[in-house]
Amino acid sequence: MKTLVNVNAFNDIYYINCFYNALFTGVIFHNEDIWNILSSGVAEYKLDLDRKRVLRVVYDKEYDKKLLEEIGLYLHTNEEEVFGFIKKAIDNNNPVIMNIDWFYIPHQKAVYQKEHRLHSILVNGYCEQEQKITIIDQKYTDTLIYDKFTLSFEDLNKAHLSYLEIMKEYKVESLFEVKKLNNTIRKVTGEECRNKYIRNMRNNNYYINRVHVLDQVLDNFDEVYKKITFDRESLLFFIDFLNDIVNHKRTDQYIGELYMKMSNEILHLNKEIESIWNKVRELSVKSMLKKDTLIDRYKYDIYDYITEIYNKEKELIELLKRSYS
């Protein structure tokens, strides 16, 4: 078995989607910092009553290729045969990000042979003799904890081919080797990332977007509530939104503690907001598991929670403005 040593699952936060958690594991393996990527994206809330997915969290981000080059890395892609690509990358001491379909991944028991779900993993080793590879992947489909697993070449190949088939009309790339740049460049500094993060908060209306959208939700609450509880799919979309919000609040906390050295007052308030969103999520998940309209009983509870979040977000934004304006 040829395995890259010191490839450890990144479990600090879940940033945007599974591709980034695989990417962060590869970046850290190469002894680089993920701060340049984190500082380049600001989360915004979107409300659209004309869509099935009424509420969304979206990231206004810079181009990832540029961000990686600024820390001395790049993603190499090719149309080579998949195992040849993996073998060559691992032999060159580079991990591989691979897009797959969880339908063919045995350790994902909740969806294995039951549900097609597109996903990204990090490959960090292979054994030609045993026809196996080692990967970093989520332990379960419903948790964001990552761990190491072993897969057969056959299962990996099926999962990869299924991904390509599902995504064929989009012509997306599916294999990425996380490599060091050969040429020497001036890397961005931590202070430059800090200034960029503050600039992005200002330029992307970070200070007003969240309270503005929450204000719209409260003003149109009956209509919003009717949309998110229309059917099971609508409720699942709403739970996805809540998952995204909780994850991005944790990312805010991570950035605030580790990189921005924010005040305890800001960090505590951000944590309070996250805990209230978690209460909304708990009620929504309870409704989904009951498979009925239980959420109707919680309408006014959810309204009160969002009102509380709205007021605390206004307070948080004033603190941030005083700190970084």
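(ticket continues) Second input and output from the same batch:
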Amino acid sequence: MFILLLNTDDLAAMDNEALIKLCFQPLITRYKEQSAQDGNIALLFESFEHGEKALFAVWTFLTHAIRGTDEFHWRCLLFLHIPARFTGMQAGLRMFGDAAMSALLDDIHAATAHLPHRGEHAITMNEAQSIYNSNCMYAASILALEARLVQAMPETIRLIAAYIRGQVSEFSALRL
């Protein structure tokens, strides 16, 4: 695994999003390796440090949800209707001190709560698009929520990076 040795000044000067990506990359690499092996993601997740768990839960959603309306809507249905993922994202956002994004997730959950839940079975992109396209009022609410996500992202990125800088020991990719 790659470990970046930094001094305090370099850590403080690093771009927020670059710092997040640097800490996230080893996590997603391990996730992909585990998925290809035996798929025991719960065991992998338990091996993460406290901060890594929060980063993984939040960043996996956000990096996909920001890629346009179809992806945003699909990811909302995928992540928010699997209780462990939703709980993990909310816990991570609380840990990062991001009340605005946490409230947004609650609003997304409320807007999609009327849809049938599939438990651990993933909804397909085509199914999500069909749901979105079948109801103009629902689609308008999703668009408004997506706009809020885009607006909230810079602060979310700032808060996550600040947490990483303050808790370096919780991220295995970094050493001071």
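Agent notes: The chain has one domain: 8-169. The longest strand covers residues 4-5. Closing as not reproducible unless the customer responds.
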